[in-house]
Amino acid sequence: MKKILFIFNPRSGKAQIRNKLMDILDIFAKAGYELSVHVTQRTGDAMEAAAAYGDRVDLVVCSGGDGTLNETISGLMKLDHIPDLGYIPAGSTNDFASSLKISKSMVKAAEAAVFGEPYSIDIGCFCGDRYFVYIAAFGAFTEVSYLTPQDKKNVLGHQAYMLEGMKSLASIKSYEMRIECDELTLEGEFIFGMITNTMSVGGFKGLVTQDVALDDGEFEVLLIRTPKTPLDLTNIINYMFLKEEPNEYVHKFRTRSLRILSEEPIDWVLDGEFGGTRREVNIINLKKRIRIMRKTPKKQ
Asked: Which part of the chain is the DAGKc domain (predicted)?
């Protein structure tokens, strides 16, 4: 009999899995799987469970927010043989599920996990010992994602991020940096940067180009230089959200890997969770490293 490991975060997204748990387990059983269940209790728990038991099963399914998905994949990356992965989104944003077109319905997502087809996706390796699924970021507003309390995320959703973000507008900090990759080298002061493999960031689809391929071995990179005047900042925001003419403060490009050096330690966020403080960062795209289950696309 095929084996499945189901890892879920009971607190994600207003604890909505509570009302769907029996339906999900029933779907797994009817698909012919012998089932093991792990209920996460703390940060890092999903990663430990995936690493400890992932090589004993045919399929790992996780349910939670982007942080739970990150932890599960980080655990699987420690294995010599990586099983296929199913994902049942249950968080407040679920950026990567949106990019993969995984249903917001937990029951439909569970069905796709066991009856769908595997799709290979790229994974980001951060400084050789951490991983991210869809975004690594630093600078303005990035602390919002991991400082916003879970209860606020549950109640307010995207509004929580906006409310917390407005608080940090007055204290935008600049970082003296050097960014190196095969395509270019940049130097100067920057207030924000993100390295992504997604079509949606923080629930907003306009921040990244929509011709993103999740399996092409390349990241989409966005870097914003420090504005000199309030008008410069306004122009940056207009470009980011309203798609006005590009300006000298915004850099967008694609790359397979990059190295970032800074004059001072910088806080990083990986998939919405705190990723550590670093002065030197090396990021590498691991092409098609994880196979994630999703609904079989309809034939034209």
From this structure: 1-130
